[in-house]
Amino acid sequence: MTGRGRYAKGVAKREEILRTALEVFSRQGYRGSSLRELAAAVNLSQAGLLHYFDSKEELFAEILRKRDELDDEAYTAPGDALGTMVAVMRHNAEVPGLVKLYTTISAAATEPDHPAHPFFVRRYEEMRQILAESIRTKQESGELDTKLDAEKLAAIMLAVADGMQLQWQFDSRHGMADHVEYLWSVLTGVEKLITR
């Protein structure tokens, strides 16, 4: 077999591992899933599974990257980054194991030497840019006050989204997407806050 054939098979196997991992983590959760179970599901040993990744932490980061890729394909509403965020959060309520994986790995990845650190740095940067652009578009159309700082508001919306995902894990009555939507409706004037 040529080197190119081995490479293509390796890429295909890695893709199979990531898609299977998404199913396993969605169904069984972060704590309920083991590398042994994941390896068995793709007909590999644990050592064989980790052959495709530099470490367990890199595998987890790649699972999250794949999740983002599939969510982008399924839920992206062109020109409406906030609508996309809300749709993804509604979907996240159906896959609590992946939400747990995300919050656990994102907290660990704050350490600069963590294998997932570059993934999260890039992810937050890209998401802030996408949200800020969407906010500027809404400002230009008159839907949102032009005095608001788009970059800061984008960072705040991401913080609210991540914070609601964390709170939701403690008490699922706190609907992740509903709270983000409510904040947005307050900012756009659809919902007025009454202060006394």
Automatic annotation (TrEMBL):
A Pfam family cross-referenced in the UniProt record is: TetR_C_6
Recite the UniProt keywords alphabetically: DNA-binding, Repressor, Transcription, Transcription regulation
| Start-end of DNA-binding region | 34-53
Positions of the HTH tetR-type domain: 11-71
Q: Which domain of life is it from?
A: Bacteria
- Report the source organism: Saxibacter everestensis
Q: What is this protein called?
A: Helix-turn-helix domain-containing protein
Enumerate the InterPro entries for this protein.
BetI_C, Homeodomain-like_sf, HTH_TetR, Tet_transcr_reg_TetR-rel_C_sf
Q: Is Chaperone among the key words of this record?
A: no
**Signal peptide segment:** none
